[in-house]
Amino acid sequence: MDIRLGANQYGKAETRLVRVDRGEDRHEVTDLNVTTTLSGDLAATHLTGDNAGVLPTDTQKNTVYAFARDGVGQIESFASRLARHFVDTTPTIHRARVRIEQYSWERVAHHSFIRNSGTRTTTVTYDGTAATVVSGVDDLVVMNTTGSEFHGFHKDEYTTLKETSDRILATAVRADWRHASADDTDWHESHREATRHLIEAFAGTHSLSLQQTLYAMGEQVLRQRPELAEVRLSLPNKHHFLVDLSPFELDNPGEVFFAADRPYGLIEGTVVRDGAPDAGLAWW
Amino acid sequence: MDIRLGANQYGKAETRLVRVDRGEDRHEVTDLNVTTTLSGDLAATHLTGDNAGVLPTDTQKNTVYAFARDGVGQIESFASRLARHFVDTTPTIHRARVRIEQYSWERVAHHSFIRNSGTRTTTVTYDGTAATVVSGVDDLVVMNTTGSEFHGFHKDEYTTLKETSDRILATAVRADWRHASADDTDWHESHREATRHLIEAFAGTHSLSLQQTLYAMGEQVLRQRPELAEVRLSLPNKHHFLVDLSPFELDNPGEVFFAADRPYGLIEGTVVRDGAPDAGLAWW
Amino acid sequence: MDIRLGANQYGKAETRLVRVDRGEDRHEVTDLNVTTTLSGDLAATHLTGDNAGVLPTDTQKNTVYAFARDGVGQIESFASRLARHFVDTTPTIHRARVRIEQYSWERVAHHSFIRNSGTRTTTVTYDGTAATVVSGVDDLVVMNTTGSEFHGFHKDEYTTLKETSDRILATAVRADWRHASADDTDWHESHREATRHLIEAFAGTHSLSLQQTLYAMGEQVLRQRPELAEVRLSLPNKHHFLVDLSPFELDNPGEVFFAADRPYGLIEGTVVRDGAPDAGLAWW
Amino acid sequence: MDIRLGANQYGKAETRLVRVDRGEDRHEVTDLNVTTTLSGDLAATHLTGDNAGVLPTDTQKNTVYAFARDGVGQIESFASRLARHFVDTTPTIHRARVRIEQYSWERVAHHSFIRNSGTRTTTVTYDGTAATVVSGVDDLVVMNTTGSEFHGFHKDEYTTLKETSDRILATAVRADWRHASADDTDWHESHREATRHLIEAFAGTHSLSLQQTLYAMGEQVLRQRPELAEVRLSLPNKHHFLVDLSPFELDNPGEVFFAADRPYGLIEGTVVRDGAPDAGLAWW
């Protein structure tokens, strides 16, 4: 046969789960978006429509809700429970990847909450033998109003950009960091501290390029958090252009900016601890 | 002639302005989305393409940026300055409405900020004689995990909804409140306090319907803030359905919920101070 | 009492209904997004949480699905059936507004379809006595690559825009047209023809301003479709800026454009048939 | 040093380019969204902020516009020109990936167009030696109203899904197909035919699972288009649930459906021609 099935996977995307923990005095709320992705011996359903090896995506959704009955706990643990379950109990499934986004709610009263910005994420992959745990943040929007330069860059015939020694640096951070071990730990503290270091490094780095800031962010996280082996960052450069007010006989000493939508720069990079297994792009 | 021009208006939508105030020790950042809408004697451009009375939308954008050079201050004041300018200096323009959304940034260092949830809004309308100032919030997402009932409703042959004495109540508040006077005041404090009362009333009301919560929110704002004459609220009822876990031989005592996207309830209402001029829907 | 309930309404938003008509040889598909909005004697639920007069939004959703069992037909008729039902059978409800968006599917085989651009809309309002039927389109994206000028406009100290005698004119049309009568008719043909005239007028008008094009579009629809009394148009001016290629020693004779997202112009206007009752903004 | 830079890349995302070809009698319009991504010897900017090897993303944008001056032609050719230019003229850049989305416009008059659904895409990667050309479609929304079954699947304790022999099958196709050769050819015809075969296979396959349909789509494209070596498909299963009308004493013989947003199934797979180099996930 000259045409064959290549890499494939399937699952249930974006199962929205809200769990309420009803303490005597006050409630806790956990608000998740769960995506499960399975792969394994799935040739039959592709080639002949024989579904004997297919665990329905509807079942995957049910499993998410049923597992939440016992409590969700930290999302890394919940994702691991799910990933292990799918591989360990479904004969045809040899690999599961569970991605969870957790939305942030801030308490305003015993049973009342206000949704905050910031999304905490995890991606746990399990192949029947070993698990990989990645934690992260998404859509963390930050801005430095000074302390950012960009000059000395390569110029060619299409370069018109002026060099600058003072610009606004604004981005929406997506960061994912891989844990050296998948053993259960205090994922919550690890996440809080890694996030704090990301933000500190963003704020504290006098930047000559967004790449430099990216590396500084990843480096500080790895230096401060020995449990982490690798950090990957995706940083859109959300351009803020100084408005030319000279037609109105006004100067503009770094005060009035136009915030552009598109196009935007996109800076992506990985910072790795030496000696740790280098997963490269594979764990993405 | 048997066909004629009716109501019309035009303007520049979503001018994105970021202003940095560079204090000696630290910066302040103001992040706005400004929409200007003008109306007046504009028949000529519609009927013959004679644009002598049309102030270009590009000019409206320029004006937003040029006015920001002197400082933005509170958005209600900035919107008023703009609205008055367009009407007072353009002979054909008899009414201007300026809508501003302000995004929230929280300081993390002297020149560094993280974007927070929550949008503060204003809509100022000026007709050459009087101004109306409306302030508000948008996309303020709140949730009560208990203290919400819904029963005793009208039932007809298409009603299948079960009555409940304990449900999740979640919504994304859009609220707009009209000030009794357009005279300059401490708009910032008024906004902060009105928002606080909205949230307090949402959290503190034992709810028999989202309508009741809506009214309680508007009433508390008006009771506590004498400078306000009217509050309008638009509250999507973001349904959280208790998942039936009985197929898995599990109970679900108010703990595991599916957060649905669509359809959603939409509850809209106005709360008015007696004696204040009743703008009805007109100020929307 | 010094604080009171003002205007209010409630309903179920965005009920997604797909109906399949299973003909012997081939199927027809109707894909709708239905929003029902009710108002009437609803003070009790706001003031005391007494829901005796509240038809649940869940029931409204059920009604949409149940009514679809008999067939949907044309959306104007379906919206009318729903609006009349809610007012006629619920004692407290005195006004219903039903808004339907219909997505376009093109047949590719007997039971297979491909989704096309373009949304057909209707908004039917019924108050127990009379119905108003509005039909329309949304997100109809059109572009003229020439035949558009903009000059002779009002200039003030903030005007920098160059006059032009040849620009791209691009917009995403939202149009709503009110029928003179709510009596059942061939809504489908009326819609098809009104849409055709809108597009013809957009393409066929040598434009001196987008306002002129707007009026021409409304006028042609009213001239050609006597069953219509009023057309309202909302036309974002999606700016296409000629890119300055002179730094690269290239000219740019109207060929290479940057399509901007924000800000954009927003031109809104109404064209009315004389003698017809002038609903002004009221039917919006 | 114990921490180091890993994989990294950067570029300009979503440069919106519209090109008008002004024929004597009529115009052609090309509407693109271009993303350029470069990688190479970029350690210095990350580690020290030395930007000597960095071609600014602003320059990448300028290059897109400047190259469009000579004409865009087919997007595969345009992407190749850009990718080769960046690698061939920037000493530090060893790999360029250019992704282009092309929006569809249908002519309504000589200089007038209406935007249609459907996005044609290409991703060209060039490493200084060889180029890889991938073409594709995105957001191609299709539906079969019958001819789709799903049964015989694996059942565990969390399975509640009923088996069905007649369901709606709806999806939004993203497909990417890799060309065996990067040599210039009639990309347009190849794209049109590949897309036609995708749709034909979707419509013509009696489906026992969406995976089976996926494979059939990829297989038909490869069988009919010898210039292609591999097809990758990502198919969200947009669930349409039959509404239970029995509470209203109505049956529902496959006619009235609720179209759900989330969660959705997500079926992804690759179909490969044997003997062709198997790029696996690498070309994604």
Element layout with pairings:
4 copies of one chain form a homotetramer.
Chain A lengths: L2 E20 L4 E14 L2 H5 L9 H12 L6 H15 L3 E17 L2 E15 L4 E14 L24 E11 L7 H18 L5 H15 L3 E10 L2 E3 L13 E4 L4 E10 L11
Antiparallel strand pairs in A: 1-2, 2-3, 3-4, 4-5, 5-6, 6-7, 7-10, 8-9
CATH level 4 superfamily of the largest domain in chain A: Urate Oxidase
Largest sheet of chain A: 8 strands, antiparallel
Q: Compute the CA-based radius of gyration of chain A.
A: 23 Å
Could you spell the SSE succession of chain A in H and E letters?
A: EEHHHEEEEHHEEEE
Structural class based on helices, strands and sheet pairing of chain A: alpha+beta
How many domains make up the coordinates of chain A? Answer: 2
Total DSSP E strands of chain A: 10
Distance between the termini of chain A: 32 Å
* Strand order of the biggest β-sheet of chain A: 1-2-3-4-5-6-7-10
Into which percent range does the helicity of residues of chain A fall? 10-25%
What is the CATH class of the largest domain in chain A? Alpha Beta
Low-confidence stretches of chain A at least 5 residues in length (pLDDT < 50)? none
Strand content of chain A: 35-45%
Return the CATH architecture of the largest domain in chain A. Answer: Roll
Mean pLDDT of chain A: 96
If helices are DSSP runs of H or I spanning 4 or more residues, what is the number of helices of chain A?
5
* Quaternary: homotetramer
* Most extensive interface between two protein chains, with residue counts: A-D, 86 and 85 residues
